[in-house]
Amino acid sequence: MKYIVIKCGGSVLDNLPRSFYEDIVSLHESGEWTPIIVHGGGPLITSLLKNLNVDTTFVNGLRVTNHEVLDIVEMVLSGSVNKQVVRNIIEVGGKAIGISGVDGSLLQAEPTENADTLGFVGEVIGVNHEVIEGIIAQGNVPVISPVGIDAGGQRYNINGDIAASAIAKALGANLCFISDIPGILVEKNGAKTKLDKVSKATIEELIDNKTIYGGMIPKVKAAIDGLVHKIPEVSIINGSEKSSLIDYTNGKMTGTKIVLEEGIA
């Protein structure tokens, strides 16, 4: 049995087809792979903040989070989005339990190094993997919202990609980022071309030349950090493509595989 952490960004959740959740259930029932879902919810958070006339800004793809924003982040992520993902799995015959990183101190956090600018945005310093393993032992797919907590009870907004990488590190799991594009795209001969495989050095170049920007930056940085800490494999795939997740677990070439060095699988 192999663990696979599946990160679904908030921008893609609304467009994932029913077949995606059917594939999650198929993986779970196969016994070969054990899926763990970590989700975002950025667009819904932004929409609600706008409706409430609360300003929201980003720095390098991370949302600046004060007390007021943090309350809304937790409400959207751990309430609305988390339970929608759980319902989607149940609707296709699966079993799932949704929790946040606060529950059981699952995601133990501390302020990010840019806390003066970002506010209550956290880094994960520990993962209580026994909480996840307990849900799995009961026959359920864990669905996790990325809100962390410290020893004093302070909550933190955790970027979903960073949370997914931390959980994958704790479990020794493969990490799969679900996107609404085929993978990392670059301009080649006047057309967008997908990279089948990309190294750490190339990623740094793509960030420098602004090919990778915004929310993709924490994604690729989390991928590299995970690989450095011995995550077996990291890929970005298009969740809207039929059977893309099954193809990935079967070892077929799909999406963009991220590696530390060129020539190393």
Tally of contiguous helical segments: 10
Residues in helices, as a percent range:
25-40%
Q: Tell me about the largest β-sheet.
A: 8 strands, mixed
Judged by helices, strands and strand pairing, the structural class is alpha/beta
What is the CATH third-level topology name? Carbamate kinase
Distance between the termini: 21 Å
Mean pLDDT: 91
Q: In terms of per-residue confidence, which ranges show pLDDT below 50 for 5 or more consecutive residues?
A: none
Number of strands: 16
CATH class: Alpha Beta
Radius of gyration: 17 Å
Count of the domains: 1
Roughly what fraction of the amino acids lie in strands? 25-35%
Taking strands numbered 1, 2, ... along the chain, how are they ordered across the largest sheet?
A: 5-8-2-1-11-15-16-14
Shape, principal axes of CA atoms: globular
Architecture, according to CATH? Answer: 3-Layer(aba) Sandwich
Which superfamily, in CATH terms, is the homologous superfamily? Acetylglutamate kinase-like
**Which sequence of SSEs, written as H and E, runs from N to C?**
EHHEHEEHEEHEHEEEHEEEEHHEHE
Characterization of the model:
With about 260 residues, the chain is an alpha/beta fold. It has one domain (about 1-180, about 240-250): Acetylglutamate kinase-like (Carbamate kinase), CATH 3.40.1160. It has helices at about 10-15, 20-30, 40-50, 65-90, 115-120, 130-135, 160-170, 200-210, 215-230, 245-250; strands at about 1-10, 35-40, 60, 60-65, 95-100, 105-110, 120-125, 140-145, 145-150, 155, 175-180, 185-190, 190-195, 195-200, 235-240, 255-260. The strands form five sheets. An eight-stranded mixed sheet has the order 5-8-2-1-11-15-16-14, with helices on both faces. α3 (about 40-50) packs across α4 (about 65-90) and α7 runs parallel beside α9. The protein is globular.
